[in-house]
# Entry
Amino acid sequence: MCNGCEKLIREKMPIINRAAFMYCNNSRILENEVKDVQSVAYLKVIKAKKRDDNIASKPNAYFYKIVKNISVDTVRYHQRQLQTIDIDEVGESHSEFINECINESATNRLIISKLFELFTPREREILDSIALGKSIDECAEDWGVTTTNAKQLRFRTMQSARELLPNLLEEL
# Structure
């Protein structure tokens, strides 16, 4: 594996996985295709690292955009044939590591999907706003509440998630 790829992917894996889950849920992409979206995202990040060594300093929105574009491509794939990134373009040494990341994220995805089942649509919207990094002011405007109420909604929803998570981990 080339220098720094594993560290970069490990650092950005939660962001990529969260984005894949979010966009695939929104796009009604099949659950087995989520792994494809994740693996293509890892490959694109590694390929981009070869062009730009400072990719780790890019904002999270950059990685969200990569995953969003891949999920759109996946939806369009059923309508027309698209070229995908071949593993040979980034090297065979990365394929084992990418498979390891996908298996790890599949467990996390299961936990997150079970957690999301327990939330109301309103709470899911609040969690999405947190994942997307929206500001409190943007959230307040979107939800039609004051800034103080938006802060409380986000805090209570996060608190609820923190309380439910240990129970879900015990079930698995």
Notes: Residues 93-117 form the longest helix (25 residues). The CA atoms of residues 23 and 69 lie 9 Å apart. The chain has a mean pLDDT of 79. The two ends are 33 Å apart (CA to CA).
